[in-house]
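Appendix C reproduces, verbatim, an entry submitted by the partner laboratory led by Prof. M.T., so that reviewers can inspect both the input and the predicted structure.
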Amino acid sequence: MQKIITAIQQLVTDKLYTEPTDITPLQQSGSDRRYFRVTTPVQSYMATWGLNVKENRTFIYFSKHFKSKGLPVPEIYCTNEDETIYLQEDFGDESLLNRLETLGHVEEAKQLFKDSLHELARLQVLGHDELDYTNCLTAKEFGKQAISSDLLYFKYYFLDTLKTPYDKQAMLDDFEALANYLTHTEYKFFMFRDFQSRNIMLRDNKPHFIDYQGGMKGAPQYDAASMIWQARAELSDDWKKELLDGYMDSLDEILGQKIDRYTFVGQYYGYVLIRLLQVLGAYGFRGLFERKAQFLTSIPLALRNLKWFIENRSMGINTPEFKRMLQYIVSDEVIAQFEPQQAIAETPLTVHLNSFSYLKTGYPTPESDNGGGYVFDCRGILNPGRIDAYKTQTGRDKDVIDYLEQNTKMPDFINNVFNIVDISVEDYLKRGFENLTINFGCTGGQHRSVYAAEQTARHLRNKYKVKTVVHHIEQEKKGWVNETY
């Protein structure tokens, strides 16, 4: 990490002729790229580091092309010699999804979604003009092969994990028919490929776009479907209809002619389905195969989103075996497999979480008569306490949290803790047990163990609605108050 920061500092000095006053790592996304906010006496920049040079080149080419068309994308300022680092315009920290979660589903939020879809239409049509698609990261066009790949991704990483028999040849025939149907679209422009509210940054209350390096030529409906049907946004049917109508109005305006709305909408719902299935495949891979807890908990939400679609919308094409299996996977029986056990009001279980110091206190005394519980040793994680700036802070302070999440293996550690602890919590809820103790120890009981106890308590409250009591033993000696939720 320090080597990357040093390289960024050198790039700023060499190309911008100024010295950065601060370089802050940002939380890592799902990719291998790393992002940093670079502060200088004049302004701030975003620095991106990635070893996939082809991906970097694609993003830079797209950005420069779109910027020349007056589209809301970041300006690229400079790159280092081996093209593993580039500096781009800083749009701030607030995404459209952040704003939606803050405001709720109010008129102001809806207008921001409308504005974003209008700018999407501009990006798709104006950005398509003179764009050299040989610069695409993967395929030049989202055609039959790409559609089939998304369907097979869903098949292998979600459908087949259910171990329910189905006619595989009939399913592949249905995939073929659906891919053929969606490939023959009248309109093909630039396709963002991952257009969703977290990739839309708000600056001065206007949308700006990031993370379009996976783009290619394709049907415009796909991007609109990706955003409007994003499961986490939980948009109402009325919003979805209004946003789609507004998006089609924008296309009419930019193209200077009216699109065939009957055909456009029919294929739009086909792309809605493709996108919903692609997301399920991703959740299945990350959750069921890589065992990442946050993706496992997203599966029920995605399934309910798909269930509503199947019950209320039509794809416009007959695919009998595919339809039969879709109806099965959104059944209450299947959704229940992925729903976590929830504590009810009468549930006696209380989870006690402790942070402690191996050097100062030693193992805490169990809260229950039966003893037992878990003790996790956090000392294998890099210690923020060795850094002067963090010596007086704890695992509840933002700077320490950012350090642990961005510069150490704490995310892997805590995710594995969740997987282990969840087994006991689910069993204890079913059996009516009253107590479970989970202890986290580190050298001083101040940084790593405090962070782990806080994050585990939050995870258990969010996933199981279970009562938690958090004790930070070393910090309580300094006047901290116990926390019960």
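The chain is about 50% helix and 15% strand. Additional entries are available on request from the coordinating office.
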